[in-house]
Design brief:
alpha+beta; about 35% strand; globular; 9-stranded antiparallel β-sheet; 4-stranded antiparallel β-sheet
């Protein structure tokens, strides 16, 4: 059997839609089979909540009187981009406060804006005939400015490597603190709840897909940067970083519980975001893929003490990783996650609630994302 987006949305509007999280649907498929489950279930909700460095926000700060063309912009003393129109700017999640080292950066500015805190704005410009002012020093909130929206070039990594450290010293990475001589290993994925592991070939996700983004409504706007379809697959899902999504959404709708600035010790600033993607159960193949479990999803462990040339040491399932320890060549490694499974569950549950209440309809993608993509390295060349 098959369903259409229109049929599913009509069931949502009438309050008859059956919505389950990716964790809940597993037992239904197991007990009734994919064909029967596809008849009964209309939408599967997914979620993740973790660090996504390739994120940021476009802001339109509004014109002062007299006006200024802002070319050097600081928000809470964090540098924002001054190369757009007079009062447009982009602040990246990993941008640093000046001077750095205080544990505050662009991600925290974004969180503070969403929390409706006052932000100190200092901007200067060259002064022109049409923008005569050369400096402004003021305070703003998200309600004072015009547009404020997240535009994140790379979110929702489809799987990721497990990090460990074979060296004799502690190292500090975006995967957290890695103790010497392989005393620990860290990973970062919601596993069976993760959006792109439930639709691994992006059969239902494309440009225009409506998503849960930071506690508000957002959209898939393009394939994410470093979009890669060449990764080896096991059980139909990649075992390393693969596809990604670029996403956008209105910050004025968002909830600071789902958008949090991070200071990762020894590495720097990042942004933790809660993102959920609804997967329409168009047919039994869709729900079969959504019934994948942590014991069927594998990731590759790599040695992060190597500056380059990292290769797979061994593969582990997410069921093994979530047990709290793994074993490598007779050595026991403690495991911990850089993403929040509890947060991912809250995202999936919140999205489920919206859909069940008829507050969130599904969008048919206007364009599907590429079936092929490769990641290129950067070569150093002379003139």
């Amino acid at each position: 059997m098959s369903k259409t987006y229109e049929e599913i949305n009509e069931r949502i509007r009438s309050g008859k839609a059956v919505v389950m999280t990716a964790e809940e649907v597993v037992d239904v498929v197991r007990k009734k089979g994919a064909a029967k489950a596809a008849e009964e279930v209309d939408v599967v909700t997914t979620g993740t909540f973790g660090a996504m460095c390739s994120s940021g926000a476009f802001l339109n700060l509004g014109h002062a009187d007299p006006p200024i063309r802002m070319t050097n912009i600081r928000l809470n003393n964090v540098e924002a981009y001054g190369g757009l129109a007079a009062v447009d700017t982009y602040i990246g999640a990993t941008a640093l406060v000046d001077p750095p080292g205080t544990g505050y950066g662009g991600a925290h500015v974004i969180e503070d804006l969403i929390a409706r805190k006052r932000i100190h704005l200092v901007a200067t410009g060259p002064g022109t005939d049409c923008y005569v002012r050369k400096k402004i020093d003021t305070y703003v909130t998200i309600d004072d400015i015009n547009e404020a929206y997240l535009y994140n070039p790379r979110n929702l990594y489809q799987n990721y490597s497990i990090a460990t450290n074979t060296s004799d010293r502690t190292i500090y990475t975006y995967m957290g603190k890695l103790l010497p001589r392989m005393k620990n290993a860290t990973y970062s994925s919601a596993g069976a709840l993760s959006p792109l592991l439930n639709d691994p070939h992006l059969d239902t996700i494309g440009i225009g897909t409506r998503i849960f983004l930071g506690g508000g409504e957002g959209y898939v706007s393009w394939q994410g940067t470093q979009f890669n379809t060449a990764a080896e697959e096991v059980n139909g899902v990649p075992v390393k970083g693969s596809r990604t999504l670029a996403v956008c959404g209105d910050m004025k709708q968002m909830d600071p519980r789902y958008v949090r600035g991070l200071d990762i010790t020894g590495y720097g600033i990042s942004l933790a975001i809660g993102i959920g993607v609804p997967i329409p159960v168009l047919n039994e193949d869709v729900i079969q893929r959504c019934s994948i479990t942590d014991d069927q999803i594998f990731a590759e462990m790599q040695d992060y003490s190597l500056p380059s040339g990292r290769t797979c040491m061994q593969r582990y399932s997410y069921e093994e990783l979530r047990s709290g320890s793994i074993e490598y060549q007779g050595k026991k490694l403690r495991t911990s996650s850089m993403s929040s499974l509890c947060g991912a569950r809250k995202v999936a549950d919140q999205l489920k609630d919206w859909i069940e209440k008829g507050e969130f309809l599904l969008n048919r993608p206007s364009t599907m994302l590429p079936r092929e993509g490769r990641v290129k390295g950067l070569e150093e060349r002379g003139e």
